[in-house]
Amino acid sequence: MYHKFLPPKTPDRCGALKWPSYVLVSDRVVFPDGVRPGAVFIEGSRIVDVSEEVTVDSTAHPHVMNFKHAVISPGVIDVHIHLNEPGRVEWEAGITNGTMAAAVGGVTTVIDMPLNSDPVTTDVRQLEAKKKLAKAKAFTNIGFWAGLVPGNAANHTLLSELLAGGALGFKSFMCNSGINDFPAVEAEHIAAALPFLKSRGVPFFVHAEVVTPVEMDAVGSADPTHYTTYLATRPPKFERDAVRLLVKLLDEDSTPAAPGFSVHVAHLADGEEALEVIRDAQSRGHPLTVETCAHYLTFSAEDVPAGHTQYKCAPPLREASHRNRLISAVRSGAISLVSSDHSPAPPALKETESGNFLRAWGGISGVQYLLPATWTALWGAAAGGEGQGEGAAKEGDLLLLARVLSEGPAKLAGVAESKGRLAPGYDADLVIWEPETRANTSVSLNLHTHKLSPYTDVPLYGKVLGTIVGGELTALFGNINRRSCGKLVLSRNT
């Protein structure tokens, strides 16, 4: 059970291993250029060496853990998560529970969004408060996006202070966020901020939906417990219009972009026209990046039962044709990373009793399942179908997973020189997992504060055996470390 704790072995070590140095061995190590038998040598918080020789000198290295045929991969980096602390811990019990769930799912670093905490993170005082909490509570490494809103978009001094405080970049909504203190930006606000963002070389994370009035006659009389009723209120046009506006603003701004800058389209659900607009902009050299989420690769509108509001998110889960195109775009590299957009809420906000999709809070609880859900979608697609792939996991699929869950996120967050790959000098953030084995998605092993999740009892592959965060054993065989060993991940602009 994940509810059991691994006892700390020594007072001077945070994790459940007493050794300051040790070696991990496996038949399948995901190196940057391929998957081969190998050994990963760890000292303190860093990887000091990697080797394709699996026979380790026991005199020089007495502490060896051999995971045999399990896969050793770079730790998962989730760049899109809502931990809701301070101020809304009843939504997720905050940093502690959220990062514990992440760790048992193979996630070693999370980047927290500037909402739905209260207050939102739009000035440096609020950022410092989050950092203080995270130092004491995080079971994974943790970084922060700052909020870019109408009130600070043109105030480059304030934005600079947020970067100096350690924010990795900025997040905006182009539509109502649902949080009064985090209003949507208009084109003028984005245009005012772009020169600063470009010159500082930081990512600009955007919820890209321009919401306009839709024909509500049919929706108004439709059953709000039917998912199609909600889906009709959030058409793909909203995403397409937002992406076109972002590209237009990039066309109009001539500020040279420093390395690290991108306009990053969050949680893309439209696998059709919006994706094509993004591809065209990328082909013209625009620094435009895009993510999708594990739930868009796993579920489609046709899967959602009436009244099951745990499936509600924004943008919404669209039809299977969108899902299939998104999977293809991840495989081709047009979509550079996959996130969880973990956004839990109490049952009352999810309207679990009424099943009313129109009133329910939009957000999916799923950081614990990011790795297995993404893997299952990609592995199944590689085999020409859904779910389990054929036979053993192939090298190309394991490398693809490392690209979209580790390397791509590390690059976006500006930490690619220390995280996202297994190489000497990199942080010892790793996940040990069995890609051909079913993950346990039962409620009893769900560490999210609120257990309502569309992933419950879904057959996902990719069982996590162990998670190492900064050299510290944080989760192993379903047990979680008693101490929180995560470190702050701060901007290079600090």
How would you characterize this protein structure?
The protein has 494 residues and is an alpha/beta fold. It has a domain at 75-418: Metal-dependent hydrolases (TIM Barrel, Alpha-Beta Barrel), CATH 3.20.20.140. 29% of the residues lie in helices and 21% in strands. The protein has 13 helices and 19 strands. It has helices at residues 89-92, 94-104, 124-137, 156-164, 187-200, 217-221, 227-232, 236-252, 273-283, 294-298, 320-332, 370-382, 395-413, and strands spanning 5-6, 21-31, 34-43, 46-51, 64-66, 71-74, 76-81, 107-112, 141-144, 146-147, 170-173, 203-207, 262-265, 288-293, 337-339, 430-438, 461-469, 472-476, 479-481. The strands form three sheets. Strands 1, 2, 3, 4, 5, 6, 16, 17, 18 and 19 form a ten-stranded mixed β-sheet that branches. Helix 5 (187-200) links the parallel strand 11 and strand 12. Helix 5 (187-200) crosses helix 8 and helix 12 (370-382) packs across helix 13 (395-413). The relative contact order is 0.18.
